[in-house]
Amino acid sequence: MKSKILLVDDEELIRHSISELLWLEGYEVVAVENGEYALKRLQSEAFDLVLLDLMLPGVDGLDVIRYIKKATRDTKVIVLTGHGSLESAIEVFRLGAHDYILKPALSHTILMSVENALALLAEEQRKRLLIEQMESTITRLKVIEGMDKNVFVDELTISLDEGITLDLSRRIIWRGKQRASLTPTQAKLFKALIENRGRVLSHRELVFMVYGYETTDWEAPVVLRPLVSRLRRKLAVFSGGKEWIKNVRGTGYLFDYGEGLKTEANSTIPSGSSHSHSH
Questions:
Q1: What is the predicted pLDDT for the residue at 93?
Q2: Which are the contacts of 104, defined by CB distance < 8 A and separation ≥ 6?
Q3: If you compute the radius of gyration of the chain from its CA atoms, what whole number of angstroms results?
Q4: Number of separate domains in the chain
Q5: pLDDT at site 258
Q6: What is the rounded CA–CA span in Å between residue 159 and residue 19?
Q7: Are 110 and 12 in a shared domain?
Q8: Residues 111, 80 share a domain
Q9: Rounded distance, CA 9 to CA 218, Å?
Q10: Same domain, 67 and 192
Q11: Helices and strands per DSSP (H, E), number in the chain
């Protein structure tokens, strides 16, 4: 795909000659004569590079660069000016311009700068894409391995009736000297059931909430059954604990315990609050 360049210069002869030069090198070129037109184009189109004069009527070149810096990270800027100064050069580079060229400039100088700027842009985009792909892969692996720490709210403690307390950060349930320690997957399952107390969660919803992946209607019960069984055995240390998680035949599971659940902040978790994955 052709790189797209916006050329901004108030001198018609320069616009024509540089446009012709860039076009012959295979670039797509849009040429405008002032900063106001440049901003309108930048707001409606994406450009890989802006070749820009500083001394423009109305909106000057520095204003255009400031807009580019604020609006996009995927546009390189080359300043081409006949009124160069140390101060303007410092400001231009501070705002992130790629190059600062004085007029009159040789065709070779302009083309070399354009080529370098576009090569740098392509490399930045490639690196950014690789980083995004790596982050996405790491996130998927964490979910698959049950390692996603964001599932839990730090230091969240839920108080059930009859003095039973669940500490989600440490994955411990206790009442007096009675206590049960949960595995990470057991804690995820228990948290999902508690937050949706009074509502039947389907097998597929629970598998997604605990493990982070989709299953079929026949696979989900097979995946959940041993996990629910082990969690019930942990809860059996409390009076009636094995009955807190009820099996709704052919549908899923329901958490049925007491009148309400309270967090450390004394806010009641409403019955049937939905944090589930829709299917």
A1: 92
A2: 82
A3: 31
A4: 2
A5: 57
A6: 72
A7: yes
A8: yes
A9: 67
A10: no
A11: 8, 13
Stretches in the chain below the pLDDT threshold 70? 1, 139-156, 161-162, 258-279
Cα gap 47→42, rounded to integer Å: 7
Q: What is the pLDDT of residue 249?
A: 85
Q: Residue 266 half-sphere exposure, CB side, CA atoms within 13 Å?
A: 0
Report pLDDT for 260. Answer: 42
Q: Which domain holds residue 194?
A: 149-263
Cβ partners under 8 Å of residue 22, min gap 6? 5, 7, 29, 51, 111, 114
**How many residues belong to the chain?**
279
What does the DSSP 8-state code read for residue 1? -
Residues 198, 200, 206, CA angle at the centre, nearest 5°? 120
268 assigned to some structural domain: no
Q: Is 143 left (phi over 0), alpha (psi -120 to 50) or beta?
A: alpha
Residue with tokens 């399952």: 189
- H/E/C letters for each residue in 129-197? HHHHHHHHHHHHHHHHCCCCHHHCCCCCEEECHHHCEEECCCCEEEECCEEEECCHHHHHHHHHHHHCC
As a whole number of angstroms, the distance between CA 261 and CA 92 comes to 59
Model-level pTM greater than 0.70? no
**221 cis-preceded (ω within 30 degrees of 0):** no
**Shared domain check, 79 and 18:** yes
CATH of the domain at 255: 1.10.10.10
User: In whole angstroms, how far apart are CA 24 and each of 18, 173, 235, 256, 266?
Assistant: 10, 74, 76, 75, 71
Residues 113 and 208 in one domain: no
Distance between start and end Cα atoms, the chain: 40
